[in-house]
Every structure is written in C-alpha cells, then in structure tokens.
Write a structure and sequence with these properties.
The complex is a heterodimer of chains A (335) and B (540). Chain A has 335 residues and is an alpha/beta fold. Chain A has 14 helices and 10 strands. Chain B has 540 residues and is of the alpha/beta class. The chains are: A alpha/beta (335), B alpha/beta (540). At the A-B interface, helix 5 of A face helix 15 of B.
C-alpha cells in the first residue's frame, strides 16, 4: 500500500471532522484535514490545535489544508464531515477535483432538502443521494454511530458503522478508519438504513431532551425510546432499508449516546423547548431531520407518531406537554 | 432527432467477423480455462471436479427432462464415470474441450453477401423469410415497402458518433420476437452499423429465420443450459466481442416483457460485460477504446404475440413459462397476418434511440465524452483504477456499476417510449371502465359485468384528450407517435379502435352504436400497459 492509499482525507474541520482526524492521527494514520477557513488551517498547522475543538490533540500525522486539489491528489478515501445544509455546495466543489476512483463516505446524521433549483428535487433526500448528484464517483458510503467528538478526542471506546453498496467502500472504511481503542468500525451493506437511522436518531434525541426537560420518569422515557426505534424501523423498511439496522449502532446506539449527558445540540434543544424556549425547526441537525423525515414518511405512507409529535413542537404548533400526551395516546392506538 | 447524414455511414465491423472468428473463440477458450484453473486452486466448489460435475449433472437432467433419444446422456454418464480417475491435467483438458464445445455452439457468423442481400431488398426479405413456400408471392407483394413502416428517431447522431469512436451496445426494450428484425431495420434506417446479438436458441428452430440470423451476426443463447461454465463462456464471448470492437445488442429485460409494461426491473445479464470489456481495454493501455450503451425502445402499433404474452402474464404459471415455444411466432400464418395488418399504417414500428451512456451509467455527450450527473467531463477509466492509477479487479464493484447502469436505462425507457393510437385508446378506455368499476385491479375487471365494459364515445374522447394533454406536459412519460401529433381526438380514437379490433383473434373492443364495447379486457389491459408508468389521473 502506498501513502495515497493509506491516507484519509476529511472534508470539514468542524467538531466531528477534527475529532475523527485526531483519533486517526493518534493511531498513526496519515490524515489530510480540509477546511475552507484559512484561519483554522493556519492554527492547526502552527499550533497543532483547532479553534473549533479546543483540547483535541492533533499529532504530526494530521495536516490541514485549504486546497481541495491537494486533498484529492493525496487521498483516495475521503470523509465528508459537514452539516446537511452544506452538502450540496461542498459536494459540487469536491466533485470538481475528484474522479471515478475516489471513495467518499459522509458522516452526516441528517437529511437534505435541496434548494429545488434546476435539476434538483425539492423533496428530502438522503445525503448519499445528494452526493451522487454532485460527485463523479459512485463509490459512496456513510459512517455513523455513537462516537461523540469528546469521546474520540479522549480516546474513549467508541464504535461506528460504515455502510455502502460497494464492498470496497466498506472494506476500505474499516481498514482506514479503524483506530482501536479510540474507534472501532463495524460494517454494513445497508446504506439506506444507516443513513436514515442516523438522521432519525438526531430527531429522536430532540424528543428525549424534551422528555427529560419535562421531568418525565424512566418508564415513559423507555417507552419513548422503544417506540421511536419501532417506528423508525417501519419507516426504514418502507424506504428499502433493513429493520435491524435501526436497533444497531447508527440507530439505537446513536440515540442512547446523544441523549445522555448534555453533549448533543439536539438533546439540549429538546431541553430548552421543554423549558419554554421558542421553537426553531432549523436550529439543529436533528431538528431539521425531524421535519424532513416527516415529509418523507407521508410520501411513504408510514405513520410515525413520535416523529410527528417532535415535529409539531419544533414547528411551534403544539405545547411540549400536549405533545407528550398526544404521542402517548397515538402510539398506544397505533400499536 | 432524425439525422440528414447519409445512412450506412458507420463502418460495418461485422464484415471482418468471419476472419476473426477462430481468434475470438481461442481467446474465449484461453481466458475461461485460465480463470477456472486459477480458481480451482481454492478447492471446494471451485475445483475442476466440481465444475465438470456441475456440467454433467445439468446436462443429464436437461436431456432426461426433454425426453431425448436413447443414448443422449451417454457422453455425460461416461464423463461422470471417468472423472474419479482423472488427473488434474486430464480435467483441465476436459474443461478445455467443453469450453470449446460450448463456444462453438454459441458463436455466430456474418456473411457479407447475406447482409447485402438482406439490406438490399430489405423489407421484402422479411416477407420471404416469414412466408411458407406457397405464400412467397403473397408475402413479397404485401411486404415490399415494410421499411417505410419502421420509423427510427431519437439521439441518432450521438449514437453514430459513438459507433465511430468506440463500440456501441444497443439496449432496447423487448416485447416481441419481431424485435430482432425490427431493431435491425431500425439501425439500418438510422445509419447505424449492424450489431451482433444473442438470440434464444428456440428462435433458430425456423430454418428460414435461422439461416438469416446465423449469417447476420446473431449468436445462440441456450437458456436451458443453467450451469456456470456455460454462462462463463457466454459472458466471455460477449466480452471478447466488445473488446474487439464488434457492436452488440442486448435486451436488458431478458426475455420478452409479458405485460407490455415499459421494463423497470432489468435482469442486466450480459450488460455487465460492458464494464469488463472496457476494463480490459484500459488494462491493455487503450482507455480511449470506449464502450457505449445506447438505450432504445421498440414501439409497436400491434404486438404479434400480445394474446399469448398477456395470457402468460396473468396466468399463475406465468413465471414458470420462461421459454414459450407455442406462441404466435411459431405460426407462420399469424406472422403473415400480422404484417398485412401493420402495413396499413405508416410508421407501425417506431425505434427510438436515447442518449448514449458509458458502462458506469454516466451520460455521454454527442462527442462521446462521459459526463457525471453534475455535467462535468469525467474520465471513465478512473472508475476501474485504484489508488495509484492501476486497474483493479473487483467483481462486486463491477456488478454494482452494472446495477447503476441498469437504473439509468430503466429511467431512460419511459422517456423514450412512443405511444401509438392503440396504446392511448386502450388507456382511455381502460380508465373509463376502471372508473365505472371503481377499481384498476385487472382480476376484478376481468369479472366485471358486460354493462360495465361499455363506454360511450364522448367519455372515451374526453379521456383521450386529457391523456394527450397530460402526456404533452410530461415528456418524461414518453411521447405520442411523431407522425400523428396533429391527429384529432376523434381520428385517434377511430385509428386506435381499428388497430385494437382488426388483427387479434378476437377484437379487444368494438363499436356498438354510440358505445364502445370492450370484448377482451386482457388485450385492452395489455395495450394500455404501455402507459402504466403514467399515474392515474386522480393521483398525478
């Protein structure tokens, strides 16, 4: 294997991208971290630390760059770690420098609503669908799971799953991203399932933040978690995914870790809503996913009472306490 | 759009096929044997003993189930007995012999004299072909101008540019055994070169048809041979043909579409050989020796075998009858009748070519360059290269590429569909009876009372007008026959009614006073199925 084959390129020097780079570099993997922000690149190169994730150890195996061409030339395997709102633009830029040999996996736990411009569908799409529109390569995948930036930086035991229709993508994902003990990578063929499970986990994290913010006890919380996984599985199967994926790392695993402690923006949003903060459906990745997934669920004719409740609160249509009552009643009727 | 470039401009590479044939066969033999011997080192199911046993088992099973002559299985039983005592060298030689045997069975032939004869007298040939001796005169007189009734249009210039620059694989929809001659004439009219193609061995049973197919580049595909070695030979033969620049034709739908629905679930089959062939070209240092896939639809005003096909589709046993040998295609009288009836109409068959694709499903420009979904030029060779530019082998990756290509083809077909009056009228009438019965379920409609199957003419015309308006607003659903865009709704109805009532054993629909009475719901369903991808009005 050559340096290029063994190098991981990361697009997006936000918290997750930087933390992933940190854990990989610590394991000896060569990493090229791309940021459009020259100040971030400069800080990393000069101080070996990032203003976006203070305290993350960035060893010498990690290099930062603002040059996409360099990234494409030095890395065949790339991780797209940007927000869902940036995917369309970043994929187009990236597409200008990639070719059919590149492998791109994304680490975005969300769904995308394209702008509806010429040639673009206005309905919600999975991230890999959007990537396919903008990138020349077909070798696309996703990496998702209960690995928070803080855990990755502190080398805690974290696990993620890489999924793709291409065995090569899964194989390379595991080979290049496996960095035990800080990160272990599992494999899956269920690209649709892992993408949807990860996106929905964010939406349900908002629901659990609401639940905890309202001071509900462990029993109702457990009901919420199990019903969320059940309806997400139904949704996934209707979309072409495997039901079991939703009980795995990207689904239940993701939900449990994001909804524990105060480390997830989605969870904190739920808590704030419970405290009476104004609704804002576009504030976090999970909130956006809730609204988009609900539209997709309608198109697929899948009833999702929990998601519906979260979306209603996020849209400011229902008071959080009423939503809890409504969801409880509907779930019992549905199942 | 129709080209004004002179026809037959693209080089007929099949002219040199016969001189190449032995070399092609030897190449197939060399590759298949080398691959199997290499794989055999893993033992188990890959061992030569297993491979040879698989052939023996399948051949004996096939011969016994077909009630072959006494002693038909002797050769295979003898091989089975000898296998146990064979050395690895013996097995390799046996394998080589089998590969050559099946290769010879598959390989085609191209006789330029037959091609010139066929294209020279063109359509009249078909009359000769499909006429029993006593009917030659009748056949020739009625079929003299058949090629005027084959209309070819679409992205012809792009296909021709690709044929000049690389190797094209034409991939049409498949609804009839008449597709082979129809697409052959379509290619001729479009100025595209003739192609080699795989044809079911059952189609070679008619000696006249067999003669022309055998001499115009067709190779034989025996669907009864299910073992892996035969599939290997077939795929390798297709791959070698493409690498050597022989334009080909595959029907990605596999067998004829029984329902007449525009094909969505493609079997892909030999389509995967386009990736392999191009990969081999890149490995040989010839990345610009491109392979292009040209989607096409063959659109009939009337389908020869409609009654048998829809019966088969609706029957519970439909799935098991993979090879139908007793349909209208096997009855020469019906074929003649079919031609007489379609000749009434100008452009009875429309072959529409789509914008070419590369083996990875990328669009191809008129200049033959691949472009990605965002419209950027992309190097197709990069799809088979690894981190350092080396060509890599990965069967799973290549199968995934082929699936992507299949999805692009399935998306292209509806847009390329051309609707005849028979399709549009059938849809308008089907909508009317479905509305009256409160269901679009064919099995319920088959049991609908006589009265529910009568449609007044005004309703039929209204439905037709709305259908045409919706069609005009949605080019992705396909389009009306270009020659009849200005036809009034009343004329369209009359024309479609004539088609639906004149050729088949029983009329699908008849006029009774001011009403149109559906007589054969199955046939009506068959013809309207071509529009099945157009959503019902309420849900569109």
């Amino acid at each position: 294997m050559t340096a290029r084959a063994d190098t991981v390129g990361i697009v997006g020097a936000g918290q997750f991208g930087t933390a992933l780079g940190s854990v990989l570099a610590r394991a000896g993997r060569r990493v090229v971290l791309f940021s459009r922000d020259a100040a971030v690149v400069g800080a990393i190169q000069e101080t070996r630390s990032s203003p976006r994730l203070l305290g993350a150890p960035l060893g010498p195996a990690l290099e930062a760059t603002a040059d996409l061409r360099r990234l494409a030339a030095e890395c065949r395997f790339l991780v797209l770690a940007v927000t869902s709102t940036d995917v369309v633009a970043r994929a187009r830029e990236l597409g200008d420098v990639l070719d059919g040999s590149h492998i791109v996996v994304h680490a975005i736990g969300g769904l995308v609503v394209p702008s509806g411009g010429p040639g673009e569908s206005a309905r919600g799409q999975r991230v890999s669908e959007v990537m396919a529109q903008g990138l020349p390569t077909l070798k696309l995948g996703v990496i998702a799971g209960p690995a928070l930036p803080a855990d990755l930086c502190e080398n805690h035991y974290s696990s993620m799953v890489v999924a793709s229709a291409f065995d090569e993508v899964v194989h390379e994902g595991r080979r290049l991203l496996n960095a035990p003990p800080g990160l272990r990578v599992y494999s899956s063929k269920d690209l649709i399932g892992v993408e949807l499970a990860s996106a929905l986990a964010g939406a349900y994290t908002v629901a659990l933040g609401l639940c905890d913010g309202l001071g509900m006890s462990a029993g109702p919380r457990a009901v919420l978690v199990t019903r969320a996984v059940a309806e997400a599985s139904r949704f996934g199967v209707a979309a072409g995914a495997e039901a079991r994926t939703f009980a795995g790392l990207a689904g239940l695993g993701n939900l449990l870790v994001r909804a524990s402690g105060d480390r997830s923006a989605d969870y904190l949003l739920g808590r704030r809503l419970a405290d009476g903060a104004a609704a804002d459906a576009a504030r976090t990745e999970g909130a956006r996913a809730a609204m988009t997934a609900l539209e997709l669920a309608k198109a697929l004719r899948v009833r999702m009472p929990v998601l519906q409740g979260v979306a209603a609160v996020l849209a400011g249509k229902v008071d959080p306490r009423d939503a809890v009552q409504m969801v409880g009643d509907t779930v019992a009727l549905e199942e | 759009m129709a080209s004004d470039r002179p026809i037959r401009e693209a080089e007929n590479r099949l002219e040199k096929f016969n001189a190449d044939r032995e070399r092609l066969l030897s190449e197939v033999e060399r590759r298949v044997v080398a691959r199997r011997v290499a794989e055999a080192r893993a033992g188990g199911d890959a061992s030569l003993e297993y491979v040879l046993n698989d052939v023996v088992y399948c051949e004996i099973k096939r011969l016994e189930s077909s009630g072959g002559k006494n002693g038909a299985t002797d050769r295979w039983r003898d091989l089975s007995r000898r296998l146990l005592g064979m050395t690895e060298d013996d097995k390799r030689e046996e394998l080589r012999g089998l590969v050559r045997h099946y290769g010879k069975d598959v390989v085609g032939n191209f006789d330029p004299r037959v091609y010139r004869f066929a294209t020279g007298i063109g359509p009249s040939l078909l009359g000769f072909l499909f006429s029993p001796t006593s009917s030659i005169k009748e056949g020739l007189s009625s079929l003299r101008n058949l090629d005027a009734h084959i209309h070819a249009d679409g992205a012809i210039d792009a296909a021709r540019a690709c044929a000049e620059r690389g190797t094209i694989v034409v991939t049409p929809t498949h609804s009839s055994n008449m597709d082979s001659p129809a697409i052959g004439l379509g290619l001729l009219r479009a100025g595209l070169p003739p192609t080699t193609y795989g044809a079911g061995k059952n189609l070679f049973s008619n000696p006249f048809i067999s003669f022309f197919m055998r001499n115009l580049g067709a190779y034989r595909v025996d669907r009864r041979l299910k073992f892996e070695l035969y599939k290997d030979v077939l795929k390798e033969y297709s791959t070698v043909l493409l690498e050597h620049g022989y334009h080909s034709l595959f029907f990605p739908g596999g067998t004829r579409c029984r329902s007449n629905i525009v094909e969505r679930n493609l079997k892909l089959g030999l389509l995967g050989t386009t990736v392999t062939a191009y990969k081999n070209n890149v490995r040989e240092g010839a990345p610009n020796k491109r392979v292009y896939i040209v989607p096409a639809t063959i659109n009939y005003r009337l389908v020869l075998e409609a009654e048998t096909l829809i019966d088969d589709y609706l029957a519970e046993t439909g799935k098991s009858r993979y090879i139908i040998t007793d349909d209208e295609f096997s009855r020469l009288g019906r074929i003649l009748e079919f031609f007489r009836k379609i000749l009434v109409h100008e452009g009875s068959v429309v072959v529409r070519f789509g914008q070419p694709l590369d083996p990875f499903g990328n669009d191809v420009t008129d200049e033959g360059e691949s472009v990605d979904r965002a419209g950027r030029t992309v190097d197709p060779a990069s799809f088979v290269r690894g981190a350092n530019g080396e060509v890599t082998d990965d069967d799973q990756r290549d199968a995934e590429y082929t699936r992507a290509l299949g999805r692009r083809l399935a998306t292209a077909y509806p847009r390329l569909t051309v609707f005849h009056s028979t399709n549009l009228v059938a849809r308008a009438l089907f909508d009317a009876i479905a509305q009256a019965a409160g269901t679009r379920d064919i099995y319920r409609l088959l049991r609908a009372p006589h009265g529910q199957l009568a449609i007044d003419e005004a309703t039929a015309i209204d439905n037709l007008v709305r259908l045409r308006a919706r069609l005009g607003a949605h080019p992705e659903w396909g389009s009306e026959h270009p020659n009849y865009l200005l036809q009034s709704a009343a004329d369209k109805l009359a024309d479609g009614m004539h088609g639906l009532s004149s050729y088949h054993t029983h009329p699908a629909v008849e006029r009774t006073g001011k009403n149109l009475q559906v007589r054969d719901v199955k046939l009506l369903y068959y013809y309207q199925n071509r529009t099945a991808h157009i959503p019902a009005e309420a849900s569109s």
